[in-house]
């Protein structure tokens, strides 16, 4: 195949054309602002289906010219269009905020993202020995009969998940009533705690 009207300097004029039928089926759509009978809603219409795919490849004798063209395109895309403008106004009038500019939100991402101090609850807690923690729990329940999970995490400085495991063994969770959302010792442990406190 030969391209007509290719006057570009390094543009290859002869190509080999390969046709394929096995590719993902596609449709061609057109967009217009005029309403017509065939156009849905006056905006988009299906023009047809693509049944063949063609790949163009420059012939062997033109491959060097085509290579030059590709390098030129790459070099043009790498050229930056930025310009430096020198401001003659040495008094900085152009840089001063004008009326109405005060209170505008900064577009700088660094200003938006303020670093927040790490909370005590976010730091990793180390697990104590299970027996030691159970003793601490009994002492806490001697002091106060009902505890919320948050309070126990603060008092014991243990991971909440580990604390829940032990609470499920030792305590009853109050879902209703005056002490809703708190833990209290199971009846069998209450007696032993009362006995030790009486001695």
TrEMBL record:
Record-level GO BP terms: transcription initiation at RNA polymerase II promoter
Main location: nucleus
Subcellular location, record wording: Nucleus
Keywords, comma-separated and alphabetical: DNA-binding, Nucleus, Transcription, Transcription regulation
Source taxon at top rank: Eukaryota
Residue ranges of every copy of the TFIIF beta subunit HTH domain listed in the record: 127-190
GO molecular function: DNA binding
Pfam families the UniProt entry points to: TFIIF_beta
Cellular component GO terms, alphabetical: transcription factor TFIIF complex
UniProt region (Disordered), positions on chain: 104-129
Family: Belongs to the TFIIF beta subunit family.
Protein name in UniProt: Transcription initiation factor IIF subunit beta
Organism of provenance: Cajanus cajan
Lineage: Eukaryota, Viridiplantae, Streptophyta, Embryophyta, Tracheophyta
